[in-house]
Design goal:
97 residues; alpha/beta; elongated
Length: 97
Amino acid sequence: YYCYEFGETVLFFHHGHKRKAEQLETVLIAKFREVYGRTRHAYAHVGHLHHKKVLESQVMIVEQHQTLAAKDAYAARGGWLSERSASVITYHAKYGE
């Protein structure tokens, strides 16, 4: 679990394994209570499941990203067929996303 405080905006990062995106905000707020309390805008980014998904709640936006990795033999055998992508998101220190 990582966080980056940027003015009134906080960015959280986690691989996404062992914690569902729907449960992540509770863990992040608890682990980074002081940072969360100082900021007005909160965003979390995860990537474990390799599919795009955005969850918006009253306290945070959690974004699940696609994989950056190319398909390999392990993915081919397992039938994992998700697409690859990278996203650019611009954050403002005062206004968030």
